[in-house]
Design goal:
2 domains, three-stranded antiparallel β-sheet
Length: 137
């Protein structure tokens, strides 16, 4: 990579990267990692909550992504000593450094959705149940 006319490279985890974007994509690229990080951005979540929030991801893939994000230091895993055990995932301070980047990517995605398609509001199943209860009362 060129910075102010000088050429640099990044050595990390036994790999040599010639572009900083390559490092970024290695760590948070792929179909699922940024989505998992997105859903952890405001609060900790249990595995089952993440699974419900991310349509199309298999339990195996979610487990693999969470393990890798934990290994890379972006996500923490807390096991509570209960029966059955309760496991929660949260962003670490390092993971929180990705939030401005994720916000900008999401903003760009919404812009592209509006420009080349349409953005539709979806009603969550939990919301339907709550609205039916409210209407019945």
């Amino acid at each position: 990579m060129l910075i102010d006319g000088d050429e640099y490279r990044i050595r990390m985890n036994g790999q040599v990267y010639h572009c900083a974007l390559d490092v970024t994509m290695e760590l948070v690229g792929g179909k699922w990692k940024t989505i998992v990080l997105w859903y952890l951005r405001k609060d900790k979540k249990r595995f089952s909550e993440l699974r419900r929030l991310i349509p199309g991801i298999t339990e195996k893939m979610l487990s693999m992504q969470l393990r890798q994000l934990e290994k890379d230091g972006f996500v923490s895993r807390t096991v509570h000593a209960e029966v059955p055990p309760r496991v929660e995932y949260a962003l670490t301070p390092l993971g929180k450094t990705l939030l401005p980047l994720l916000e900008e990517i999401a903003k760009w995605g919404r812009l592209m959705g509006k420009k080349f398609g349409q953005v539709e509001k979806m009603e969550r199943p939990m919301m339907k149940k709550a609205k039916r209860k409210a209407a019945a009362a």
